[in-house]
Design a protein that fits this description.
- By secondary structure, the protein is an alpha/beta fold.
- It has two domains: about 35-40 and about 350-445, Sandwich (Immunoglobulin-like), CATH 2.60.40; about 50-345, TIM Barrel, CATH 3.20.20.80.
- The protein is built from ten helices and 17 strands.
- It has a nine-stranded mixed beta sheet. Strands 6-5-4-3-2-9-8-7 form an eight-stranded parallel beta sheet.
- The radius of gyration is 23 Å and the shape is globular.
- The two termini are about 15 Å apart.
- The relative contact order is 0.16.
- The model is unreliable at about 1-35 (pLDDT under 50).
- One of its GO terms (cellular component) is membrane.
- GO terms for molecular function: glucosylceramidase activity.
- Keywords: Glycosidase, Hydrolase, Signal.
């Protein structure tokens, strides 16, 4: 397309803005005669995407192998491009050695660090000697000063092993009653801890960022008291939380305070029975697309990072040998996740405006890199291809590439053919085609 024709088309498309939504995710139905259009506005910026990750597995399974770590955190072909590893801080009492409690996870984390990965460390419970009850389940923190020293001890040990932690949380799901390792914290108790001892942790480990306790449902009452306390807010860097049953929404107070907020754990496994042999009982393709849409929504909600549960699990990114999965093999969810991890990490989300005839089940977010190149992420959960989706761009592209991950109906296909297909687009004159049941990335070079 020559420049004059392109600019005329662009001008015509911009005239459609009066009928466009102000939302950053797409979804509408209007008469066919109006062209389906996305208008990208890169001058309107939102959050920087720090990355995507998974949870380390040695708590309830064998530890991730070096080969599996390379698959999860490498950036080459048949690698997923993750860049955040979440690890558990196992409770260690004074009569236990650091090597016996933390040695395994340190070895895995060192492999991750060597691959350039960010390490997030989360405790499920403090040692019982620091709690109000003599049990790793439930109770509250009794010895605040002792807990600060304990976290420093862990951070020092990890650094000595060549597996330095980048971000440390003070508690997994402090607002949820469970029957496994846990400890209850109110928002005010968290604020008290950070206010009194956050600075001492930072003084001992200035390169480590402090994260709030990670609410199971990103309930703001768990973290608002920290953000509203001037001293506590000053020492934290990241608000963490999970989205079990809710919470995948913008956190305006965190943004107002200049804090990143990360989604640090979630999983979807309703398509399988919950006990061995974990038979498939639901629509696994629909659930994988649901997960993709959830990640896209997290980005549209302003989250800076998204971390899935176990990296190796039949409902995770690599198979674990259960539910007919193949041990260590990339799952369809893994290929889907790679679309986000490889294409969005390090970029800034920008505004995208959708005309009202973009289907309700096709989600889209837009991003730019430091050179102004654009990336569009689409999730099409419908059974229909989207044809001729026009783009209103602020520049004439020098190059356009599309990567398509079509989600199969099988849990674990015998071949990965079609799971991740790249192609060059020679012209946008006829718009984009978005395949049914797919996750699509479009990279647009200036």
């Amino acid at each position: 397309m020559n420049t004059i024709k392109y600019m005329y088309t662009l001008y015509s498309l911009l005239l459609l803005l009066a009928s466009c939504s102000d939302e950053d995710t797409t979804g509408y139905t209007v008469p066919e005669q109006i062209p389906a259009t996305l208008t990208i506005q890169p001058d309107i910026e939102y959050q920087k995407v720090q990355g995507f990750g998974v949870m380390e597995t040695s708590w309830q399974q064998t530890a991730l192998t070096e080969e599996e770590m390379n698959t999860l955190f490498g950036t080459g072909a048949d690698q997923l491009g993750c860049n955040i590893l979440r690890i558990r801080i196992a409770p260690k009492d004074k009569n236990q050695t650091a090597d016996s409690r933390w040695g395994t996870v340190a070895r895995v984390a060192k492999v991750a660090k060597d691959l350039g990965t960010t390490i997030l460390a989360t405790p499920w419970t403090p040692p019982v000697s620091l709690k109000t009850i003599d049990n790793i389940v439930d109770g509250e923190l009794a010895d605040y000063a002792g807990y600060a020293e304990y976290l420093k001890e862990f951070l020092t040990y990890m650094k000595q092993q060549g597996a330095a932690v980048d971000v440390v949380s003070i508690q997994n799901e402090p607002d949820f009653e469970v029957t496994y390792e846990s400890c209850r914290w109110t928002g005010l108790q968290q604020a008290k801890f950070f206010k009194q001892y956050g600075a001492s942790i930072k003084a001992a480990h200035p390169d480590v960022k402090l994260m709030t306790g990670e609410s199971f449902q990103y309930r703001h009452e768990s973290t608002d008291p920290i953000l509203e306390d001037e001293q506590a807010c000053a020492v934290i860097d990241v608000v963490g939380g999970h989205i079990y049953g809710g919470g995948n929404t913008p956190y305006d107070l965190a943004k107002a305070k200049g804090k990143e907020y990360w989604m640090t754990e979630h999983l979807l496994n309703e398509a399988w029975e919950k006990k061995a042999p974990y038979l498939l009982i639901g629509d696994v393709r629909a659930e994988t697309l649901q997960l993709a849409a959830e990640i896209n929504t997290a980005m549209a909600s302003g989250f800076n990072a998204y971390i899935y549960w176990y990296g190796r699990r039949y409902y995770g990114m690599l198979g674990d040998g259960l539910a007919n999965s193949t041990m260590s093999a990339i799952t369809p969810r893994g290929y889907m996740y790679a679309q986000f991890a490889k294409n969005l990490t390090g970029k800034t989300r920008v505004k995208v405006v959708a005309s009202k005839n973009v289907s309700a089940s096709v989600d889209c977010t837009a991003y730019k890199d430091s050179q102004g190149n654009l990336t569009l992420m689409f999730v099409n959960r419908t059974s229909s291809d989207i044809k001729g989706l026009n783009l209103a761009l602020p520049f004439i592209p020098a190059e356009v590439k599309m990567t398509v991950s079509t989600v199969p109906t099988e849990s674990f296909p015998e071949t990965n053919k079609g799971m991740l297909v790249e192609s060059a687009i020679s012209s946008l004159e006829n718009g984009l085609d978005i395949k049914a049941y797919s996750i699509v990335t479009v990279n647009i070079k200036r």
